[in-house]
Amino acid sequence: MSNAGSACNGQPSLNAVPTHGQPLWLLAELTYKCPLQCPYCANPTNFASKTDELTTAEWVDVFTQARELGAAQLGFSGGEPLVRQDLAELISEARQLGYYTNLITSGVGLNEHKIADFREAGLDHIQVSFQAADPEVNNLLAGSKKAFAQKLKMAREVKAQGYPMVLNFVTHRHNIDQIDRIIELCVELEADYVELATCQYYGWAYENRNNLLPTRAQLERAERITNEYRDRLAAAGNPIKIIFVTPDYYEERPKGCMNGWGQVFLTVTPDGTALPCHSARMLPVEFPNVKEQSIEQIWNRSNGFNHFRGYEWMKEPCVSCDEKEKDFGGCRCQAFMLTGDANNADPVCSKSLHHDLIVQAREEAELPTHQEPIFRNERNSRVFAKS
Amino acid sequence: MSGAEITPDQIPELSRMFRFQWEKAQDSYVLLYPEGMVKLNGPAGEVLALVDGQRTVTDIIQSLQAKFPDAEGIEQDILEFLGDAREQRWISL
User: Fold this and answer.
1) Which of A80, A376, A379, B27 lies deepest, with the highest CB count within 10 Å?
2) How many CB atoms are located within 10 Å of the residue A178 CB?
3) Which residues of chain B does A24 touch, with a Cβ-Cβ cutoff of 8 Å?
4) What is the predicted ipTM?
């Protein structure tokens, strides 16, 4: 009975009928409100113009419908999901529906009572994000003086109350050289999983790319040190799992973004707009809203979700490429942001006619940073909303 | 730890990192963990369904022998699977 299980968050079968998988992963972005101001936030830069939020009942309806279609993982995200006063109720409803419930939080706004209440409501796991392993860099990036101490305290409390804990560090040129201290902090906090997720350049991070993209040397050093820690920790019998995400800017082939468009992931934004990934809102594609269509219609029949399914939409070099079934032409958002045409190959691909844009970004990363970061806050967002 | 022999009186227990449940949409038992899911094959699901922190290895083997009287040599399969599951840290013994 070896090979008893297969990872199910991986590849959908491309030839299966129907031509797309089930929405196994539901990401509920409950709100765009957040007390932090991270300059690499994935939220839309114009979030200040989108203030509508689904009601408790509307969210429960979304959870119920998506569960019927096969969703098993539910992420409560944002913004900062703790801002929602009905979070415990949403957790409870989701858990009763059979979801594995994940709270993805900065830890700011959390306390030991809420952690206990959420446990009672059936929350399965808490992911706490950090900005860095030391208070100065962390608080500078978060735009908050107290954030680091609060995060440490909450991470300890999450473990003390028996939750599995994931610690997430978004890495970039300002903190990636501290990778050893980051890993040591995670070990000390007894994280079960560590995500060393190199910044992905969407939303605010794209605006701040010049300030965030590490050099190749920084990246290689960090990966080498991470591997050394992995070996050492495994040898010591420590079950901690460390996941290192490389930025695709240093790859020659694009990532198979979201395991394919509309194959596994369903994101619902605060106002009910449904997206195949949390960045897709930027695309010149009309996306459905859960207030107007059922999740079944959205997932199976909406133009937004069918737009980039299959291979019909592709242009060269993707159309004739023998790797198209592996990476689906890469990320549609990246193609759109960098080339102005979402049907183009992701410029990360060395076969792309626009690959020089990626090469240029790498070269710029070698220069000293010459731009102040734009912090993710209401004031800056209103500027983006107007432009 | 891994590779150590499994004895009949041991009591397997599901790791707190995992939740085990029947998943209708997958038509199978699954293990759920932070941001992931393992789809279990039929026999693996049958064994884990009996792992409750109370039954011994012997109890589990006897239950499955009673449930599948025609299956030959399942004792060895069950022991092997429990060993694999321990190595994957799905269970502790």
Assistant:
1) A376
2) 18
3) 37
4) 0.91
